[in-house]
DNA sequence: TCTGGGGTCCTAGGACCC
DNA sequence: TCTGGGGTCCTAGGACCC
């Protein structure tokens, strides 16, 4: 693309990221929690996955197990919540719809982040002024605070966003279009904070004397490719302001569907594991149908606690390729049941299990052989009826194999109401 | 006692083909 | 005694992301 003077148009990306998203959601309908430290826990109330500003200041680290910060929680009167995905998902959709109304194109990157394409906008308005207006509008319309990072590549936009959050003087908006500013920020950013550099590669880079993002950006991309990977080569180029990652407006179709859980209490007997595996298969099948796919590959895994010093470790998986893809819960339950009996061993204390569906086909795209069994014509209608009933909120139908609720079910002791998605949880305001 | 869940992409190596 | 070159596909495992 070129502008009217024949100069190539430089792409401009913005990354908008919600501040302490889950913690902000929990506080939105609880004004009494303003100023009080808030944390949100992972499934099973296991680890800390979100912290309000105040909680961060107390030194509560990300992903730390709950029991390790119990003392701080009690001493400092920290408000603790289980994950409430119904609430976060709904508020996320609200934030995204505001962003969508304010930018020509956007990519929803995760539950609390979106990339926007602002190419060409700098000719109409100052980019940072636009960022501030966007931030204000999201806050006014949803009550959620966001940070905005603007730059010529996604990786730099990520970095700008980090800076917007780290340095309050920025007001939560950083425009990194200027190469001099880019260099300055890269110079004070440790290499492992760059998007796409994880712990492992961070260590390897450090060992090679590459300690800052600036040093990484100055590496020869070909050398990086040889020593590391093409992915990291792309990161180097992106850090130099060369955009290699495009905006993905429609997310590519999923290639697998996974449902796995850690149990609240260890499972030691086969019937309990069987009902857990059946429940995960049923849930995975539900997701599969939501995505309008049929799966041919079925994998299950079971494992004990890898952290345990005292219990023996066991981890095993098994998979099967079906003759024809299916989205019928009954077929999947039959399959996982057979797989489970092949890997189950008595005498272990199991901590986690899961069901994975892969080799996914859109309807009507699989070519069966002459002798493949056809799916019964009533299957799709039956599954539709099942999904409709279970979505109606009037009750739930499940398969016998799933059993009734048991002690191993996920622990969510500190769950807040589904304020925005369930009528009976609607907050009431009294004058 | 107590450590989440759900994804993607890349690479190396083996099997196989002509 | 001598034993090519080029390619595809599949899988397991590693690394990364939020």
What attributes does this structure have?
431 residues, DNA polymerase, domain 1, alpha+beta, Dna Ligase, domain 1, DNA-binding
The assigned structural class equals alpha+beta
The major pleated sheet works out as: 5 strands, mixed
Which stretches are poorly predicted, pLDDT < 50 over at least 5 residues?
Answer: none
Q: Strand order within the widest sheet?
A: 5-6-1-7-8
The succession of helices and strands, N to C, reads EHEEHHEHEEHEHEHHHHHEHEEHEH
CATH architecture of the domain at 256-364 and 376-402: 2-Layer Sandwich
CATH class of the domain at 256-364 and 376-402: Alpha Beta
The rough form would be described as globular
**Total helical segments:** 14
User: Mind telling me the CATH superfamily name of the domain at 256-364 and 376-402?
Assistant: DNA polymerase, Y-family, little finger domain
What is the CA-atom radius of gyration, in angstroms? Answer: 25 Å
How many strands?
12
Distance between the termini: 57 Å
Helical content band:
25-40%
């Amino acid at each position: 693309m070129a502008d009217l003077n024949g100069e190539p148009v430089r792409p401009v990306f913005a990354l908008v990221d919600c501040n302490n998203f889950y913690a902000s959601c929990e506080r939105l309908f609880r004004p009494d929690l303003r100023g009080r430290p808030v944390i949100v826990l992972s499934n099973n109330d296991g680890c800390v996955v979100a912290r309000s500003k105040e909680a961060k200041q107390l030194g509560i680290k990300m992903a730390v197990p709950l029991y390790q910060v119990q003392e701080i929680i009690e001493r400092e009167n920290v408000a603790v919540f289980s994950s409430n995905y119904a609430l976060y998902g709904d508020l996320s959709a609200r934030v995204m719809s505001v962003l969508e109304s304010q930018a020509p194109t956007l990519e929803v990157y995760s539950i609390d982040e979106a990339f926007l394409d602002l190419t060409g906008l700098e000719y109409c308005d100052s980019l940072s002024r636009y960022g501030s207006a966007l931030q204000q509008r999201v806050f006014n319309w949803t009550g959620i605070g966001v940070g905005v990072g603007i730059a010529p590549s996604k990786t730099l936009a990520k970095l700008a966003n980090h800076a917007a959050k780290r340095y309050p003087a920025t007001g939560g908006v950083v425009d990194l279009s200027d190469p001099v500013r880019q260099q300055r920020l890269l110079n004070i950013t440790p290499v492992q904070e760059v998007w796409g550099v994880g712990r492992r590669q961070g260590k390897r880079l450090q060992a090679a004397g590459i300690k800052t993002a600036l040093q990484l950006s100055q590496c020869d991309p070909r050398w990086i490719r040889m020593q590391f990977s093409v992915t990291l080569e792309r990161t180097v180029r992106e850090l130099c302001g060369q955009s290699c990652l495009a905006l993905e407006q429609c997310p590519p179709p999923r290639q697998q569907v996974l449902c796995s859980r850690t149990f609240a209490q260890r499972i030691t007997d086969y019937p309990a594991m069987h009902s857990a595996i059946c429940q995960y298969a049923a849930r995975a099948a539900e997701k599969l149908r939501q995505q309008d796919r049929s799966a041919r590959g079925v994998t299950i895994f079971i494992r004990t606690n890898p952290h345990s010093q005292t219990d023996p470790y066991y981890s095993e998986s098994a998979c099967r390729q079906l003759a024809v893809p299916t989205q019928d819960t009954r077929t999947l339950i039959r399959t996982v049941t057979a797989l489970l009996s092949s890997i189950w061993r008595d005498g272990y204390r199991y901590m986690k299990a899961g069901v994975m569906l892969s080799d996914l086909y859109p309807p009507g795209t699989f070519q069966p052989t002459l002798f493949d069994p056809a799916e019964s014509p009533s299957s799709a209608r039956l599954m539709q009826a099942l999904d409709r009933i279970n979505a109606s909120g009037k009750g739930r139908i499940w398969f016998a194999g799933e059993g009734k609720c048991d002690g191993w079910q996920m622990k969510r002791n500190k769950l807040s109401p589904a304020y925005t998605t369930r009528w009976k949880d609607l907050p009431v305001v009294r004058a």
